[in-house]
């Protein structure tokens, strides 16, 4: 993101890349997102109730038709690129539309590559292999950065597409390598070309297609609404949500890869107490980590934004807007995390239809809030609408939690922790004036650590003891 700020800034080229990429990912998630989200749960059920070979053969069928339909989607986008460009950017002039059409053609194959990557990661997760994708992603992202630096002068904005493809192909190679290394028998059995496996996963995911459709429409509408606010608004939106979402994705990857298979297993075995213990542990830890993200950005958002994006291509006014929006997106993470985790609990306990309904209504509420509040709140509408809608429906989903009578989250204590920590860090950020961005971030990080530790003692937060125990064991191991 720092490099794209340096090379492209807040510009029409960057807006075009974001609109094209958002269109492809919107179509991808609208078509395949529901199956991706439910795959792990269904696969675990098949393994537990039938056997390993049965689950693998159904997955082979799913993969074959994934590839067929993804290729068909790519052909449609390439043939009708002008139609798609006109729909997503009706206010663009002829020259801008021409660039957008070309970008849509170049990025269309991402429909296939992204899906191969997602289903590969899901299969690894289903076999309780959780960190291969993260390690592989780390190296592929390093390569992405290097390639962007190499190609940007020659290819301009198209360098983003080139670096994306090469790094994604590397990630797919890593996934296949670990299939071989961990002896996952995907290619062991004769390939299943029948429609039965695809049909089984598709039917299981049907309740999620409406919420995913509305969710992806919402994502695209957000970009379109932002584009109407003026040139560069789409880029500001993208720059401002990247830091909170990057940190959040680390937390979310753990939740979605580990929690769903684990909760599903406990639910199938009717282990109510273990189900609640696992949920409570992850929920509290996630809320605490998000509290640390919010606290840090309350005090250091301007330093982070200056360090990443102040490359001479973005005005000070735009940097201030990005900084303020970054904090709002960080606060919205509480609603997003609560929504996702309660949704995962419903998914693991075979209440996927309720989760799907709540998901659809959440996205509708976000769209409605964006439409009506945009004239009043401008670009700040987008993070606020996400926060309000997801907190509201997370609360409604918590009422459907399978063992809610026995669940004691002690949520008030953790919200108080976040609130007090945020106030301390906000005041510190206002009154501690340090011109050097790195030095200010270091100062805010130190203050955050001290404040969080002190508050955890005062509020008697149990996770403090777990953290201290882990640190002590690490120190002992080193010695």
UniProtKB/TrEMBL annotation:
GO CC annotation terms, alphabetical: plasma membrane
TM regions (residue ranges): 16-35, 62-87, 99-117, 129-151, 157-180, 201-221, 245-264, 285-309, 321-342, 354-372, 378-399, 411-433, 439-459
A molecular function GO annotation: lipid-linked peptidoglycan transporter activity
Membrane topology: Multi-pass membrane protein
Superkingdom of origin organism: Bacteria
Database matches in InterPro entries: Lipid_II_flippase_MurJ/MviN, MurJ
Compartment(s) where it occurs, according to its Swiss-Prot or TrEMBL record: Cell membrane
Keywords noted in UniProt: Cell membrane, Cell shape, Membrane, Peptidoglycan synthesis, Transmembrane, Transmembrane helix
GO biological process: lipid translocation; peptidoglycan biosynthetic process; regulation of cell shape
One Pfam family linked to the record: MurJ
Annotated PANTHER family: LIPID II FLIPPASE MURJ (PTHR47019:SF1)
Protein family per UniProt: Belongs to the MurJ/MviN family.
Role this protein plays: Involved in peptidoglycan biosynthesis. Transports lipid-linked peptidoglycan precursors from the inner to the outer leaflet of the cytoplasmic membrane.
UniProt name for this protein: Peptidoglycan biosynthesis protein MviN/MurJ, putative lipid II flippase
Organism of origin: Chryseobacterium polytrichastri
């Amino acid at each position: 993101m720092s490099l794209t700020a340096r090379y492209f800034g807040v510009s029409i080229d960057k807006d075009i890349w974001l609109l094209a990429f958002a269109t492809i990912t919107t179509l991808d998630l609208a078509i395949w997102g529901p199956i991706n989200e439910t795959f792990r749960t269904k696969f675990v059920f098949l393994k537990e109730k039938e056997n390993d070979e049965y689950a693998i053969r159904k997955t082979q069928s799913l993969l074959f038709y994934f590839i067929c339909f993804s290729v068909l989607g790519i052909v449609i986008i390439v043939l009708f690129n002008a139609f798609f460009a006109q729909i997503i950017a009706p206010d663009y002039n002829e020259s801008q539309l021409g660039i957008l059409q070309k970008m849509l053609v170049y990025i269309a194959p991402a429909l296939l590559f992204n899906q191969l990557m997602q289903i590969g990661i899901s299969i690894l997760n289903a076999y309780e292999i959780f960190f291969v994708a993260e390690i592989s992603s780390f190296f592929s992202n390093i390569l992405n950065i290097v390639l962007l630096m190499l190609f940007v002068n020659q290819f301009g904005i198209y360098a983003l597409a080139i670096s994306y493809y090469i790094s994604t192909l590397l990630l797919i190679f890593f996934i296949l390598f670990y299939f071989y290394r961990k002896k996952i028998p995907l290619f062991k059995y004769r390939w299943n070309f029948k429609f039965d496996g695809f049909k089984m996963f598709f039917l299981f995911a049907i309740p999620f297609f409406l919420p995913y459709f509305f969710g992806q429409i919402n994502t695209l509408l957000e970009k379109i609404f932002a584009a109407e606010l003026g040139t560069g608004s789409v880029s500001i939106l993208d720059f401002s949500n990247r830091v909170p979402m990057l940190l959040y994705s680390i937390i979310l990857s753990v939740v979605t890869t580990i929690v769903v298979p684990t909760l599903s297993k406990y639910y199938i075995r009717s282990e109510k107490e273990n189900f609640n213990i696992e949920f409570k542990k992850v929920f509290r830890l996630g809320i605490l980590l998000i509290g640390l993200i919010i606290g840090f950005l309350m005090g250091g958002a301007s330093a982070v934004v200056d360090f990443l994006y102040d490359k001479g291509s973005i005005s000070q006014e735009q940097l201030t807007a990005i900084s303020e929006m970054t904090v709002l997106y960080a606060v919205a993470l509480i609603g997003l995390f609560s929504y996702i985790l309660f949704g995962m609990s419903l998914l693991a306990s075979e209440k996927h239809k309720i989760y799907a309904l709540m998901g659809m209504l959440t996205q509708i509420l976000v769209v409605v809030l964006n439409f009506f509040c945009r004239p009043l709140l401008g670009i700040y509408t987008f993070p606020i609408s996400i926060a309000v809608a997801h907190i509201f429906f997370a609360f409604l989903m918590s009422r459907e939690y399978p063992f809610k009578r026995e669940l004691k989250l002690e949520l008030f204590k953790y919200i108080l922790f976040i609130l007090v920590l945020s106030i301390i860090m906000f005041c510190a950020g206002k009154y501690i004036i340090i011109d050097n961005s790195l030095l200010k971030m270091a100062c805010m990080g130190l203050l955050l650590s001290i404040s969080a530790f002190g508050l955890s003692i005062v509020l008697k937060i149990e996770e403090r003891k777990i953290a201290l125990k882990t640190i002590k064991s690490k120190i002992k191991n080193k010695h």
